[in-house]
Amino acid sequence: MNKDRLGAFMDAVIAIVMTILVLELEKPSAPTLKAFWGLRINFAAYALSFLWLAAMWTSLHNAWHVVGKISPRTVWLSMGLLFFSSLFPYATSLVSTYFMSKVVQGFYGIVVIATTVMMMLIYRSLAKDDGRSETAEYMKTVNGFLLIDVGIKIAGTVVGVLVYPPLVSVGVLAAAAFIMIVRKSHLLERK
Asked: How far is Cα 102 from Cα 14, in angstroms, rounded to an integer?
């Protein structure tokens, strides 16, 4: 399969998932600031999920520019990534409704962690698919940062489930901030 065809399909699915996120936002009970303020957790959960999906998409977008070809293994790993990504609207809606639930926050954390693990597997697969040392080095660098990223998410999920549920979301936010800072420093950008 052509890498551009897979990239376009992934872009479309991720765009749909991001659109569903906003459609899941609860409407205020009245057109007042107080009613909007009452939905602050909903908006925060939406913003966090949107931010995380945007960071994931940006990272994948950069990877597609590095790699020359893909294998059926990469295609199927990408389907796994899209499967877990498609759970974001559902998990985000649950977090919006049951913000203090350890089970719900734990589920959200598992969705985020599973998606990140699928990204790591895709980057490893892409390094094998392409075979060029430049590609392998790029994918190794990205995977190194994703290892830190997933560590932050796992720590946030464990502490959140055991101690204080919102720490799951804080861990996801911290991981997203880490990846954006790394990207801002041009360590993950293709020149």
From this structure: 27
